[in-house]
Structure to design on (306 residues):
């Protein structure tokens, strides 16, 4: 459970930098560069101290990365500029957990105990109550449906990717240890492959005068900011964040529905950053939702420890 909580904190920091990056670069470009840096860092570790590409489950880990990173993170960065960081994170994190739990139940036959279901429900309800906007006036109506679809795509990718990752962990060759960072390395290669293909398509469209998403023009100052944000995002997201996430799934052997329920707390950790950098102040509803979510985590921790 400690690894899941650590992943929650790291993913929160990743979301803060990711939201800012979405205003400067396209989702494809952001994900390509952060996955490339993450693959380099994780690869250096995995080939030096871990099994590298070994372990016997590379194929499933790779497919998990295609779905979780390629599909899930692409949808996340496309939804950011439309829905905003808070609503996007609530959609993604809240829906990913029940999606993962349902897939595990239908595919792997691993259901959750009543107490775990109750705790997960409390966490998701608390996060939704705390962060779901009371109005959507800041969102352009004509783009609202597209934002919802991108958010659903992200939630499905993360949920299904988590289940596949846990399945891969059960297929590791006996006697070989695939730790969290090594598993994250094998997964991130799948996401990097998807983004490399999408980036090549994007460059081809630009070269042929096609219509593309426009970003804020770059300046020397903004380039330095972007590089710093990419490094921070790569470390907190696909490198250390996913490393802790994989540890919770494969080493601690927690069900994906439980891990994703705890990770669903990550939007709550964003609140202090929103207060600092965006001038937001938590509402009474946010405080009540936070308390409910924390109670859910306490119950979840108790259930898992039994």
């Amino acid at each position: 459970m400690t690894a899941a909580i650590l992943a929650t904190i790291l993913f929160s920091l990743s979301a803060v930098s990711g939201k800012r990056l979405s205003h400067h670069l396209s989702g494809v470009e952001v994900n390509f560069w952060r996955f490339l840096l993450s693959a380099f860092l994780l690869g250096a570790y995995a080939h030096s101290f871990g099994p590298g590409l070994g372990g016997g489950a590379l194929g499933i880990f790779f497919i998990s990365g295609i779905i979780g990173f390629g599909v899930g993170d692409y949808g996340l960065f496309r939804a950011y500029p439309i829905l905003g960081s808070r609503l996007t994170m609530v959609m993604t994190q809240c829906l990913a957990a029940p999606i993962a739990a349902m897939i595990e139940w239908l595919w792997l036959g691993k259901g959750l105990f009543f107490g775990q279901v109750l705790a997960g429900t409390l966490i998701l309800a608390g996060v939704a109550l705390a962060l779901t906007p009371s109005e959507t006036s800041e969102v352009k109506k004509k783009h609202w449906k597209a934002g919802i679809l991108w958010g659903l795509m992200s939630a499905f990718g993360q949920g299904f990717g988590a289940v596949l990752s846990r399945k891969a962990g059960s297929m590791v060759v006996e006697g070989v240890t695939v730790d969290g960072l090594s598993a994250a390395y094998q997964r991130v290669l799948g996401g990097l492959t998807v983004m490399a293909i999408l980036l090549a398509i994007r460059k081809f469209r630009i070269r042929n005068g096609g219509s593309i998403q426009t970003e804020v023009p770059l300046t020397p100052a903004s380039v330095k900011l972007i590089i710093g944000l990419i490094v921070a995002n790569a470390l907190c997201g696909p490198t250390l964040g996913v490393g802790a996430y994989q540890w919770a799934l494969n080493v601690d052997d927690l069900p994906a529905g439980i891990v994703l329920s705890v990770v669903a707390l990550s939007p709550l950790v964003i609140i202090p950053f929103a207060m600092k950098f965006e001038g937001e102040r938590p509402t009474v509803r946010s405080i009540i939702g936070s308390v409910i979510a924390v109670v859910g985590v306490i119950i979840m921790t108790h259930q898992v420890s039994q």
User: Anything to note?
Assistant: Residues 147 and 224 are 29 Å apart (CA to CA). The mean pLDDT is 83. Residues 2-305 form one domain.
